[in-house]
Give the backbone structure.
Amino acid sequence: MIKHQDGIAYAPRGLSREESARYIGVGTTKFDELVASRRMPKPKRIDGRTVWDRVALDAAFTDLPDEGGNRIDQLLAQRRSA
């Protein structure tokens, strides 16, 4: 979180490759594989910097398949598809 002059802490929207991998809980090699297979989003370019959109990472992470799942996950999935 970054604390700004207004005194409110904001999570950064743009994340580096390393930050993005850490954010979704994998190493950089696995993150690169996920991007290459389009399970994670491609980065954005800001001048010479490559960044991943945290919101897009959240959406892609949500779309990853669940392993086994549990009743709560099943109910949430049904609610999303309704």
